[in-house]
Design goal:
CATH topology of the largest domain: Rossmann fold
Distance between the termini: 15 Å
CATH architecture of the largest domain: 3-Layer(aba) Sandwich
Order of helices and strands: EEHEEEHHEHEHHEHEEHEHEHEHEHEHHH
CATH superfamily of the largest domain: Glycogen Phosphorylase B
Shape: globular
Length: 376
């Protein structure tokens, strides 16, 4: 018997971020015993994948976005998804689906799988509220008590939750989600993200290293902490922070950019050159799920200095790098000095990272996810 799963991510699709993860997961889970489809609101191009379709017909996309509000477009897309479900289909819901749609799908008797891309919002809110307060900033993360209650209500209607990291799993357990509902998994990377080690990236000599931070430059991913640790470490090298700077932290970030050893690179679609030219990957995130940029760091064979959230459950302390509390300044400064100054240690971490990367190819991740479902 073939299991049929209909996935829905109510967003505009392009080949990065959550949309990219959804496309990759759904494609990789396909098999003779499991057939999946995926619906998004619209996309910037035709993917040529038989399992994917847009809720908005291509000819109507510009009209919808011109004349309707986002909430109206979302409601229309949810309507299209609901009425595309066949009697025995399992609904596989990604972030942004309304509680109303959860209730209606549940009322119609469909099993529901939920994709947890970040920690439970009760956990996220607690962490981010504390950090914004510590920085003397007005909280702009947008997570409200109502959001937390709504997420818990959705989880009650859910039969299974794909959890992308051990930290996400723990947050779900802390929010009283039954353990038997949680399917522990990961995200992944494509074959092109495993860089050829003879592709021009050469290990730095001595203390002359290039370190990279990749991600949105805001409170959540901890770049403000990293910049402080880098400056205090006295490492001789270059720190490249890659991503768009959020307005709320611009006044904190910009003074560091006056230093000759710190370079800001605005958001870029193709990160291969950034990774190829680096020696160390840095991500002191305060709250995450399992960041795709960390998988890319494994594929590039980079020594990783990360927080537990930034490591996403895939970086093992002492093997692919070092995992440290994002607020433990002493540990971060020491780690930067050790890894920057010890080429042998960097090479060990690099080799372990590169050897681990193939375990997280999307083809492998998809098979494991499919088995988790079939075994339950």
């Amino acid at each position: 018997m073939t299991t049929k799963i209909s996935a829905f991510y109510p967003n505009y699709f392009y080949e990065s971020g959550i949309a990219y993860a959804a496309l990759s997961v759904v494609e990789a889970m396909q098999s003779e015993n499991m057939k999946l489809s995926l619906m998004g609101i619209a996309s910037n191009r035709h993917y040529g994948k038989p399992f994917y379709r847009n809720a908005l017909p291509d000819w109507s996309k510009s009209l919808f976005y011109r004349f309707l509000k986002d909430a109206q477009i979302k409601r229309f897309s949810e309507f299209r998804f609901l009425y595309s479900l066949k009697d025995q289909d399992i609904a596989y819901l990604w972030p942004g689906v309304s509680l109303g749609l959860y209730k209606e799908i549940h009322r119609r008797g469909h099993k529901i799988i939920r994709e947890a891309v970040n920690t439970h919002q009760s956990n996220s809110k607690s962490i981010l509220d504390a950090e914004y307060s510590r920085l003397g900033l007005k909280a702009t993360h947008g997570i409200t008590a109502a959001n937390v209650e709504e997420e818990s209500a959705k989880l009650e209607l859910t039969d299974y939750v794909f959890s992308c990291s051990p930290m996400v799993t723990q947050s779900l357990l802390n929010a009283d989600v039954p353990k038997q509902k949680i399917l522990q998994t990961s995200y992944g990377l494509k074959e092109a993200d495993i860089l050829k080690m003879d592709n021009g990236r050469k290990p730095a000599v001595g203390n002359n290293v290039t370190a990279i931070f990749v991600g949105t430059i805001g409170v959540r991913k901890g770049p403000h902490l990293l910049l402080d640790y880098w400056c205090r470490s006295g490492v001789q090298g270059k720190l490249r922070i890659v991503g768009d700077i959020q307005p709320e932290v611009r006044h904190i970030i910009e003074p560091y950019l006056r230093r000759p050893d710190i370079e800001h690179v605005p958001y870029v679609d193709n990160l291969s050159d950034i990774y190829e030219q680096a020696d160390i990957f840095l991500l002191p995130s305060l709250e995450e799920g399992s960041p795709l940029v960390t998988y890319m760091a494994l594929g590039a064979g980079l020594a990783c200095l990360v927080s537990p959230m930034g490591g996403g459950g895939i970086v093992e302390h002492g093997k692919q790098g070092l995992v440290m509390d994002p607020h433990d300044a002493e540990s971060w400064i020491d780690a930067l000095q050790r890894v920057a100054g010890d080429a042998g240690l960097r090479e060990e971490f690099s080799r372990n990272a590169y050897q681990k990367a193939p375990d997280y190819l999307w083809s492998q991740v998809g098979k494991k996810r499919a088995h988790l479902l079939l075994d339950n």
